[in-house]
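Protein modeling request. Please complete all fields; requests missing the sequence field cannot be processed.
Requester role: graduate student
Desired output: 3D structure, token encoding
Chains: 1
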Amino acid sequence: QVQFVESGGGLVQPGGSLTLTCAASGSISSIVTMAWYRQVPGKERESVARIVLWGAASYEDAVKGRFTIFRDNHDNMLYLSMNDLKPEDTAVYYCNEDPPKTWGQGTQVTVSS
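Delivered output (113 residues):
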């Protein structure tokens, strides 16, 4: 089973940008749908962006136009470019298949002045 390691989170001011990186332990070329998820304390984990094998992507309304998901099937990587970050984007971000399997540790994104 492929496992995922997320990185790239941090503290950023409102309006700033971050790019999250997800490294897979094995090939993702057979995984049809990959996704980025996020979770805040006390709330359920939610999917914010999905991308299928041939590159078509979809986004939750709250991030549409600000976040972009990319996948590199050759190097088994998934990325999330986040622009115009807002305090409500503060969360732990995870990558996984869709539907999800084993969760990684995630990477914390904090948007605060």
